[in-house]
Amino acid sequence: MCHRVALLTAGVLVGLLGMSQRSLAQQREITVEIREGTNLSFDLSPDGRWILLDLVGQLWKLPAGGGEAVALTDAVRDTAESRDPRWSPDGTRVLFWRGFEPIFTFGVRPLWVLEADSGEASALVADTVRFMDPAWHPSGRSLLVVYSTTRTRPDDRLYLFDLSTGALSAVRADSLPYNRGQRLSAPAWSPDGRTIAVVEGRGDGPIWEVDVESGATVRVTPEGVQARQPVYSPDGASIAYLEEDSTGDRRISVRDREVGMPRRVRVATDDARSTMKPVGRVAWTPDGHRLVFVQGGRLWSVTREGGTPTEIPFTATVRFTQERPALPPLRFPMPGREQRARGFSGIALARRGPRRRPRARQPLDSDTGRAGDERRQCR
Asked: 3-state SS of the chain: helix, strand, coil percent to 5?
């Protein structure tokens, strides 16, 4: 026995989808546990108790020893990504970027501040301002930013952005390669606020130290060394940074400011023949004895002398509700019973209002799918 039915047109399906979809929708909660991330950015709180990290477009907070991460922002609710968190010197506020991937790609990074206790976030500067790599001043009253006054050619300069007035003031740095088509990145304050370490170039390049009062500059990295993300130790006596070696891998190096010679921090794995390759940035623990870094999408710490690292495990749980529309059940004709199918085509808005004026279609032939008046029955 054969079962022949009339064909449903696309217009009928569109009509079905529009029928009380909310009442027919089925919801299910999806839970995802995340224990590592791509391009993970983090920061260690000034008291060393907490770590902030960005993961799946959200900011998370977890104990410095590892554990369950708590979401501070919601990428779905906020309809925007939050990235690159940085604690304020007193640990009460968090500086971060909030926006969308196309905005980040074109260099526009809306800068926001989140109150650590209340979780309230507010925009700090307009979305069109192109501040790069902000760093808190030790006083917490201003930010050190990389800012270019023109878009036609690179002329990055260091500025202080006053948080109370919004005023910009240039940082004197006489020997930095201004007006030579160079970029600057990753500026960092010394704990006493007297000097600034900054990278010449976006990403990797030589690191310079700037005396804020005199404007004099001193090269931190040896000639030919490409490095990134300098950070002062809590006592200000050393500078740690990520250095690129001859093979293109990155290693942690520490330069004693008095001695002047950098020393590589060897981060060994269980396999004595290999070493870990840190990425991202480095952070000092408050006592200055250990360094925290990212490798393989996970957080690790190692003593400043080097050795076997200790993992800082974390689990970030993402929950969201997925809505799945439930369509009415399809009803097929009984064998031997005739049923016509009708649909709409050429739906368009009327000129004088939102009323739609569909063009009716003729019945469809169940065998050929062509419009016509033929009627067929199953035999």
From this structure: 5, 45, 50
